[in-house]
Write a structure and sequence with these properties.
Elements: H1 3-16, H2 22-37, H3 41-48, H4 54-69, H5 71-78, H6 88-102, H7 107-120, H8 128-148, H9 156-166, H10 168-180, E1 184-188, H11 192-199, E2 202-203, E3 209-211, E4 228-230, H12 237-242, E5 249-252, H13 259-266, E6 270-275, H14 278-291, E7 296-299, E8 310-316, H15 331-334, H16 340-357, E9 358-368, H17 377-386, E10 390-392, E11 411-413, E12 427-434
Parallel strand pairs: 5-6, 5-8, 6-7, 8-9
Antiparallel strand pairs: 1-3, 1-4, 2-3, 9-12, 10-12, 11-12
Helix pairs in contact: 2-3, 2-4, 2-6, 4-6, 5-6, 5-8, 6-7, 6-8, 7-8, 9-10
Bound molecules: S-adenosylmethionine.
InterPro entries: MeTrfase_RsmB-F_NOP2_cat (IPR049560), MeTrfase_RsmB-F_NOP2_dom (IPR001678), NusB-like_sf (IPR035926), NusB_RsmB_TIM44 (IPR006027), RCMT (IPR023267), RsmB/NOL1/NOP2-like_CS (IPR018314), SAM-dependent_MTases_sf (IPR029063)
Region (Disordered): 1-23
GO molecular function: RNA binding; RNA methyltransferase activity
Length: 436
């Protein structure tokens, strides 16, 4: 059979797959991109979920998320029933079925649906019998056995540096936080207390509003009117610490999709929001339109852009995003230690550019959503060595907890903090001033 005939058969096959199976099929495509190709979900979601109705997209995302969050557990339950590791496509089907069974889905339905999917896939059809036999066995033990399995560990490339920086107990606490996932946090455009009351959320000491359970953001009161935006409680702190005043000339140097830009624009500062990515800036403009806030937006490479000088600069530099694993369980599989060095170089170059764009007497807040010291304190210490005009200023606010402070004078936030409240993303934040 020729290539076109084969593709045609595959397309016709896809059409025959029952509608109810499409979220699982899409989840498997997401898993194959992350686990097979090392691609982050954010890079492939748009393409792989294209054409699916919103509920099916959401279900596919939830299924892929659950498998990635629990991968070592599913592999542990599967291991006794496999004499050798099956090819990736079959293994991912088994992992998906095992996770669904373990999370309490009706065994008969899950097994027959996953076997149906196996029969439908070109790479998996030959393993239909194996999938059936293994999942039947897993179904007998999964829900009880699951609960007794250890919390999944991070892969070595990330676990090793975290152990070195924080010690094994803190690293294990972060792994528990990653496994538990993250609540929904909102930042209010206006009064946070009023937003907490309107949404039934909890007003956190830092001013964010935390919503319990799973909700549809667009259905929350005030969404259409732009009364709030979604932003993790830790991610809301850098702009608060910059403290941009009304009328101040402020630069958001890596701005998109704009959570921090919106915070600064809401204070009445005159904000320039710059980012190298056109599509990400388009999202920032959508956020500005929904919230009725105004800034200047610039699509440019910060390393070569001329402007300023600015009274205040926020540099939320591109980074490993290892502080956001709670929300992005694909990240440990989609990054490697090799991806870190170029990011660290870019961060240093961006800090140097920020210093050049800052007015004498101006304030620079540097932050990254990373857990790794080389993207946080080490960057700031090196920058202070390169720029004699720059001094670190100890952040001061009534909501700062002593445990958050790092020895050099920044804030070191990790996902295991606020465990009883539902945690926070990992962030490093430092506030510096340029001599007048
Ligand atoms: C951590 S994200 C920023 C998140 C944003 N501050 C927020 O709160 O929504 C880093 C951003 O840096 C941008 N970026 C990367 N390299 C850049 C460069 N050379 N110049 C300007 N922006 C850059 C990326 O496009 C990305 O949007």
């Amino acid at each position: 059979m020729g290539k076109e005939a084969r593709q045609g058969r595959a397309r016709r096959g896809a059409e025959h797959l029952p509608e109810s199976q499409r979220p699982r099929q899409a989840a498997l495509a997401l898993l194959s991109a992350v686990l097979g190709e090392g691609r982050p979900l954010s890079d492939v979601e748009e393409r792989l979920l294209e054409g699916l109705p919103p509920e099916a997209r959401a279900r596919a995302g939830r299924l892929a998320d659950a498998v990635l969050r629990n991968l070592p557990r599913a592999d542990r339950l599967l291991a006794p029933h496999l004499t050798k590791r099956p090819p990736m496509a079959t293994l991912n089907l088994l992992r998906l079925g095992t996770t669904e069974l373990a999370e309490g889905a009706a065994a008969h339905g899950v097994v027959s649906d996953i076997v149906g999917l196996a029969g439908h896939g070109k790479k998996t059809a030959q393993h239909k019998g194996l999938v059936n036999a293994v999942l039947r066995k897993v179904a007998e033990e999964a829900p009880e056995a699951w609960e007794g399995l250890p919390v999944p560990r991070l892969p070595g490339w990330l676990r090793k540096p975290l152990n070195a920086a924080y010690g094994p107990a803190r690293t294990a606490a972060m792994e528990r936080a990653h496994h538990a996932g993250a609540p929904l946090d909102l930042t209010a455009k206006g009064d946070p207390q009023a937003l907490a009351e309107a949404t039934g959320g909890e007003l956190l000491p830092t001013g964010s509003v935390r919503i319990a359970g799973s909700v549809q953001v667009s259905a929350l009161p005030g969404f259409a009117e732009g009364a709030f935006w979604v932003q993790d409680a830790a991610a809301a702190l850098p702009a608060k610490l910059l403290g941009a005043k009304a009328g101040a000339k402020v630069l958001d140097l890596c701005a998109a999709p704009g959570g921090k830009t919106l915070q600064m624009a809401a204070t009445g500062a005159e904000v320039t929001a710059l980012d190298i990515s056109g599509p990400r800036l388009a999202r920032l403009r959508e956020n500005l339109a929904r919230t009725g806030l105004a800034t200047r937006t610039v699509t440019a490479d910060a390393l070569h852009w001329e402007g300023g000088p600015f009274d205040a600069i926020l540099l939320d530099a591109p980074c490993s995003a290892t502080g956001t694993v709670r929300r992005h369980p694909d990240l440990p599989f989609a990054r490697t230690a090799a991806s870190l060095a170029p990011l660290a170089e870019l961060q240093a170059a961006l800090i140097d550019r920020a210093v050049a764009l800052l007015a004498p007497g101006g304030t620079l807040v540097y932050c990254t959503c990373s857990l790794l010291p080389e993207e946080g304190a080490a960057q700031v210490e090196a920058a202070l060595g390169r720029h004699a005009s720059l001094a670190l200023e100890r952040p001061d606010a009534e909501w700062i907890e002593e445990a958050w402070r790092s020895p050099e004078g920044g804030l070191r936030l990790t996902p295991d903090l606020w465990a009883e409240r539902g945690g926070m993303d990992g962030f490093y934040i430092a506030r510096m001033v340029r001599a007048g």
